[in-house]
Design goal:
Helices cover 80% and strands 0% of the residues. The chain is built from 18 helices and no strands.
């Protein structure tokens, strides 16, 4: 038995203590919060960063695009590395690298350094994110994963809601560099503690030798996802361009090559048993559809509230706040319903809530009542929280523990692709009117219903 196999927690030889589970949950939650907070505070810091470093709009856009492309392209392979060498170890190195890159950005002399270090930060973020789910899968019994995932979801919601406020205060008082230096100490301390704390001894029985890393498959998947995400990110700014078409062609060609390679290799990056699972595929589809509809709707509503109704950014954030609050409070409730009802009814209920919320907000305009706006955002947050908890639990629950990292990488990939797809769709549809754009996004949310039907009916959260 090797150390890496032991850390991966594939098959536990003795019960894991409650203390170790609490520590694992705390690491998973705090690691996810650091990444979520970093993304939201950056949006607030970008205008000041541009002025301070005399950067162009394209260069500033690349501070986000470079990070997103690196993360999207490497998430699944990073999950496989965790399956092979241990999620705790990969989590620790991801945190240490993320914190070190953040420190470098905080002292960057010019925008080129910021862009390069953001790509490095994305690489370590890709290591970190699947490991937060892989560790939960190793530490908790499959039928008790719902609540840990719900608490992780609530924490991400708090970070996303608090990010703009924290970023605004830091930028106003200390400058844009402070938003990157904010997470340096927590990331480094947590990373060192994760390396220092040894997991309980485990045994690996009846699993055979660990699979080799599929480097060609990882390279093809990275190119396909990076090209796709890069194209989607650029669409709101540039629209349909020749560069965008070339990006989609690259994504399509490399995807076809990836499928061909995965069918022939002995140790595929994407195990056939995982991708061939109707349950897992349905859950991933729900995550893409829900996050696309949610973020697309928020993009359109932000435009309506500010440019049509004349609200300032602060008031816009306060109007949308009930949605974030409902997501935070509703996630644990969703875990309870998941355990009692099962995945299928909970996901269907979440789909109805999300779709109804977007339909309510499609009537947003001059003269809209406060009740209508508040109700729309409450339904939006409640539905999205329920779907995120349910679909994530299904993905992590219904894969072998030796592929938990790959499952976590696929879940995180869905949560990266969905929002960029939703914003791109919203930008394309808005010339037709904000109401029709939201109606189409409601249709995207409703696609979760036929997918939810493919989830387990019995309570197996």
């Amino acid at each position: 038995m090797t150390a890496s196999t032991t850390e991966a927690g594939v098959n536990r030889g003795r019960p894991i203590s409650a203390r170790h589970r609490r520590l694992t949950l705390a690491n998973s939650v705090l690691g996810a919060v650091i990444v979520a907070l970093d993304g939201t505070v950056l949006m607030i810091a970008q205008p000041t960063l541009r002025r301070d470093l005399d950067a162009s709009l394209t260069e500033i856009q690349w501070t986000s695009t470079g990070y997103l492309s690196a993360v999207a392209g490497l998430l699944v392979f990073a999950g496989r590395i965790g399956d092979r060498f241990g999620h705790r170890r990969v989590f620790a190195w991801g945190l240490l690298g993320f914190g070190a890159a953040s420190a470098g950005i905080g002292f960057a002399p010019e925008v080129g350094w910021v862009i390069g270090l953001r790509v490095v930060q994305g690489i370590f973020g890709a290591l970190l994110q699947p490991a937060t789910l892989g560790m939960l899968r190793a530490a908790f019994p499959p039928d008790r994963l719902g609540m840990p995932i719900a608490l992780r979801t609530s924490a991400i919601g708090v970070a996303a809601a608090a990010g703009p406020l924290v970023g605004g205060v830091l930028v106003a008082q200390l400058g844009w560099r402070a938003v990157f230096l904010l997470n340096v100490v927590p990331a480094l301390v947590m990373g060192l503690l994760a390396l220092a704390v040894r997991p309980p001894e485990t045994e690996r029985t009846g699993q055979g030798p660990a699979p080799r890393l599929d480097l060609p498959g990882a390279a093809l998947l990275a190119v396909a996802l990076a090209a796709f995400v890069h194209t989607l990110v650029g669409m709101p700014e540039d629209g349909w361009t020749a560069t965008g078409v070339v990006g989609l062609l690259i994504a399509a060609v490399t995807s076809a090559a990836l499928i061909r390679h995965e069918r022939r290799t002995a140790d595929p990056l994407l195990p056939p048993a995982l991708l061939g699972s109707v349950t897992v595929s349905a859950a991933l589809g729900v995550l893409v559809a829900a996050s696309a509809a949610m973020l697309g709707a928020l993009f359109v509503c932000s435009f309506v509230l500010q440019d049509v109704l004349g609200m300032d950014p602060l008031r816009t954030s306060l109007v949308a706040l009930p949605g974030g609050v409902m997501m935070v409070l509703g996630a644990p409730l969703s875990a309870v319903l998941l355990r009692r009802w099962g995945a299928r009814p909970t996901a269907l209920a979440g789909t109805v809530l999300l779709t109804t919320g977007i339909l309510a907000l499609s009537r947003l305009g001059p003269g809209s009542s406060t009740v209508l706006v508040g109700t729309g955002f409450v339904l939006l947050g409640a539905g999205f929280g329920a779907l995120m908890v349910t679909a994530t639990a299904v993905v992590v629950r219904h894969v072998p523990s030796e592929s938990a990292g790959v499952a976590g990488g696929l879940q995180q990939t869905a949560m990266n692709i969905g929002p960029t797809l939703g914003v791109a769709a919203a930008t394309t549809l808005m010339p037709l009117g904000t109401g029709p754009a939201l109606l189409v996004l409601a249709g995207v949310a409703a696609l979760g219903a036929p997918l939810a039907v493919r989830m387990p009916r019995l309570a197996r959260g």
